[in-house]
Amino acid sequence: MGEPVNVGVVGCGVIFAQYGQTIERLPGLRLTAVADLDLERAREAVRPYPGVEVLSVAELMADPRIDVVLNLTIPAAHAEVALLAIAAGKDVYCEKPLAANAVDAARVLRAAADAGVRVGCAPDTVLGVGTQTARKAIDDGLIGRPVAATATMMTPGHEMWHPNPDFYYAPGGGPLLDMGPYYITSLITLLGPVTTVVGAAGRTRDKRVIASGPRRGEEIPVTIDTHVTGVLVHASGAMSTLVMSFDGAATTAPKIEVHGEQGSLSVPDPNHFDGPVMLAKVDERSWEPLPVSAGYLEAGRGVGLADFAATPAGREPRAGGTLAYHVLEVMESLLSAAHSGTAVTLTSTCERPLPVALQPAG
């Protein structure tokens, strides 16, 4: 088995607790140190984990014990922190998206290649039994040749629950860049890379009101598109219709459906690791659940980091930087297509990530 990989975390915000709980129970990972601009927040975050040190960012990067830096900062800081880790000779695994824009993401990948270190990136929810069971159904030919997919996320906005939602409504945020990585990564896992996109986008209002926490009632500015829709043309020829919105109260639309010549799949929420996968065959037309057949069982946020750390040298990790860059370019291209009114051809591609056989997360 070997020694666990020592993890140093930069950023101890809301998502840290989920990663910390997963790292704690996976034998291949060891939470070693954390850093945050707010040292008191960092100390509070590691209270459940005795022995984990609180360091400055510079100290964490210089610490020879740290094998991989887990970058949980806000999207605007992802590239800066990743480049610091790379300069220190450490692998880095980022919370999504890989960077606030594709230019910065490309800088990260170039720097990593030059330094001989690896880059990984969330989301890792696609490695759970939900998306992976659907992936196996497609690979096993249960729906025949895939021809289309739909993906829908509709909420009233994160200011309804997040105490500090400002960055969701600033460049690098919005429903597409925030939630799109889950859906687009899942679509690429199911159907392969994207070649061309078309789209439309807009926003309903220029201000939002925080609905919870100590800043309840405070207005924040909105400078990004809060409703985005588009069509992704995959290299396989399949077409995915995508709707990402912070402008609706709710929806009964399935999170993801994939349609083939011989049947259709209902795929669970890509923001979760599990959930029922339903199959409807052309000759039956009734939905039936599929047994869990692939993916990491009882997975949590951070299983992608463990998968990344266990990936042999020379092989692209399932939650790898190349995939994350392609997802980011898909999103940027969709926004560009929405604003220009023309189709945009992508410059990047990626391999369809390797499937995950049914196995325990730990």
Automatic annotation (TrEMBL):
Keywords: Oxidoreductase. It holds the Pfam family GFO_IDH_MocA. Residues 5-120 form the Gfo/Idh/MocA-like oxidoreductase N-terminal domain. Residues 132-265 form the GFO/IDH/MocA-like oxidoreductase domain. The keyword Cell wall biogenesis/degradation does not apply. InterPro entries: Gfo/Idh/MocA-like_OxRdtase_N, Gfo/Idh/MocA_oxidrdct_glycsds, GFO_IDH_MocA-like_dom, NAD(P)-bd_dom_sf. PANTHER family: BCDNA.GH03377. This is Gfo/Idh/MocA family protein.
